[in-house]
């Protein structure tokens, strides 16, 4: 239980709770990139990993410009006429890489959340060290994948070709949450490893202080 944990363990679980919230928000919200509201002719309003919001976007293969997209739509929307045809235009290779890496971040963090609950309520002390190391590994992977995703998006996000107003785009608060979550995940990895080391030393100390039973001849 939490009350029996070391200081590093308590900090690790508390920091993990914050990290999980930040990862979920960054993964699900639609403010990774936004356009300046003061610029009237912008095509983009804001976008996340899975939702795009437009002011007025025309398809790249629509020279007559009779079809316009406005409002927010899920990336895999199948009900809007013509939206499936421009999906590849909205998701260049770098953006697919960002989606892939941050999905791995979300999956590793969510799996760690299940393991943390098991650690708090189900696991006995003899197996805690193993669980702590597994959680630390998952959080390390989460932090690495998250860092790669925010670096790739930060380097390429503002240069979206279809926005046509790149100078008015800026990285918004969902992206900031992603950066912070990636940093905290790496900090969490270190804290769980410290807690695992403390638990291992306690188990070793307990084993060395047990009285030895002498064999007696019958």
From TrEMBL:
<dbReference type="GO" id="GO:0035151">
    <property type="term" value="P:regulation of tube size, open tracheal system"/>
</dbReference>
<feature type="transmembrane region" description="Helical">
    <location>
        <begin position="173"/>
        <end position="194"/>
    </location>
</feature>
<protein>
    <submittedName>
        <fullName>Uncharacterized protein</fullName>
    </submittedName>
</protein>
<keyword id="KW-1133">Transmembrane helix</keyword>
<dbReference type="GO" id="GO:0005918">
    <property type="term" value="C:septate junction"/>
</dbReference>
<dbReference type="GO" id="GO:0019991">
    <property type="term" value="P:septate junction assembly"/>
</dbReference>
<dbReference type="GO" id="GO:0016020">
    <property type="term" value="C:membrane"/>
</dbReference>
<dbReference type="Pfam" id="PF13903">
    <property type="entry name" value="Claudin_2"/>
</dbReference>
<feature type="transmembrane region" description="Helical">
    <location>
        <begin position="130"/>
        <end position="153"/>
    </location>
</feature>
<feature type="transmembrane region" description="Helical">
    <location>
        <begin position="100"/>
        <end position="123"/>
    </location>
</feature>
<dbReference type="InterPro" id="IPR004031">
    <property type="entry name" value="PMP22/EMP/MP20/Claudin"/>
</dbReference>
<keyword id="KW-0812">Transmembrane</keyword>
<keyword id="KW-0472">Membrane</keyword>
């Amino acid at each position: 239980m939490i009350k029996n944990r070391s200081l590093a363990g308590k900090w690790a679980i508390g920091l993990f709770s914050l990290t999980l919230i930040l990862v979920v928000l960054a993964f699900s919200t639609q403010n990774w990139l936004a356009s300046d509201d003061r610029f009237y002719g912008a095509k983009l309003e804001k976008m996340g990993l899975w939702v795009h919001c437009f002011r007025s976007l025309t398809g790249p293969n629509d020279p007559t410009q009779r079809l316009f997209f406005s409002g927010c739509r899920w990336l895999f929307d199948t009900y809007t006429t013509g939206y499936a045809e421009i999906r590849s235009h909205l998701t260049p290779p770098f953006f697919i890489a960002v989606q892939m890496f941050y999905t791995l971040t979300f999956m590793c963090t969510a799996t760690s959340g299940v393991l943390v609950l098991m650690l708090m309520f189900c696991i006995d002390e003899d197996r805690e060290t193993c669980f702590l190391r597994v959680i630390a590994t998952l959080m390390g992977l989460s932090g690495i994948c998250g860092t790669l995703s925010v670096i790739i998006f930060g380097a390429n996000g503002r240069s979206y070709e279809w926005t046509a107003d790149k100078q008015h785009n800026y990285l918004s608060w969902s992206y900031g949450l992603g950066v912070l979550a990636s940093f905290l995940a790496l900090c969490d990895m270190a804290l769980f490893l410290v807690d695992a080391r403390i638990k291992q030393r306690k188990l070793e100390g307990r084993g060395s202080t047990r009285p030895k039973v002498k064999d007696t001849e019958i």
